[in-house]
Amino acid sequence: MSISEVLAMHTESIEIKNGTLDISVHSQKLALNELLDFASRENPKRGFLFVSKVLGKHIPVKPNMMRKTYDLLASDLFEDVSTFMVGMAETATGLGAGVADSLARKQKRDVYYQHTTRHECNKPIWFTLDESHSHAVDHILYEPDSRLFGQILSCERLVLVDDEISTGRTLGLLGTKLLNRLPNVKEVVIVSLVNWLGEKDHSQYADWRAQYLMFHCLKVNLHLNQNQA
């Protein structure tokens, strides 16, 4: 464990409408209060939401702060290898594009980007997957354009981008389906702003034929002490 990670370890308590969030910060590249805020949600499974300060989706943010975040996440991708990057709808579509752009700026090999969507259109569907904890059920990944399909199939690295990782289930499904279609991938990298995946949850990636890595701006554990009705 690095000195920066040790210094980053601390606990915080944040009051929201639904109760008190107890947060254990394990590592951080951006400070918690610089990266996100929290809000309540009317959901019996999870009574809080992350409200990002760097996505430019819910709270206005300067483009240079967004670029700083993209560069931070791309900086962990050291090897210069052909890369196919996929962002998760809906919140991480712009984040994934930004990280892909930062990676393309710093390496010579090709970088290709696509995001999942929930919008139906008259195009061939590559595959779909469900997100059980979300209010929206399905993700669709359309078949890449024929002019790029061959190059994407030859990529050696797969990068999956989401704004937050909780159970990791949806990313696990996405990675499995893509590995079945991308025969040359040797490494899968999961990139996120916030990672609160438990240690036992990593076992769901054990059957992947490629090695996997995880990079994030913030690693936390959270617990909501809900207000009594």
Please list the strands of the largest sheet in the order they lie side by side.
Answer: 1-2-11-10-9-5-6
Residue-averaged pLDDT: 89
| Topology pattern, helix = H, strand = E | HEEHEEHEHEEEHEHEE
* Proportion of beta-strand residues: 35-45%
Q: How far apart, in Å, are the first and last alpha carbons? A: 42 Å
Low-pLDDT segments, ≥5 res:
1-7
Characterize the largest beta sheet: strand count, sense, and whether it forms a barrel: 7 strands, mixed
E-strand count: 11
Helix content: 10-25%
How large is the count of helical segments? 6
Radius of gyration equals 18 Å
Name the shape in a single word.
Answer: globular
Structural class: alpha/beta
Structural notes for this entry:
This protein is 24% helix and 36% strand. Helix 3 (63-74) crosses helix 4 (93-106). The strands form 3 sheets. The protein has a 7-stranded mixed sheet, sandwiched between helices. It has a two-stranded antiparallel sheet with strand order 3-4. It contains 6 helices and 11 strands.
In a nutshell, what does this entry contain?
The chain is an alpha/beta fold and 229 residues long. It has six helices and eleven strands. The chain has helices at 3-8, 32-35, 63-74, 93-106, 146-153, 169-179; strands at residues 10-16, 19-28, 36-40, 48-52, 83-87, 111-115, 125-130, 138-142, 157-165, 187-195, 211-226.
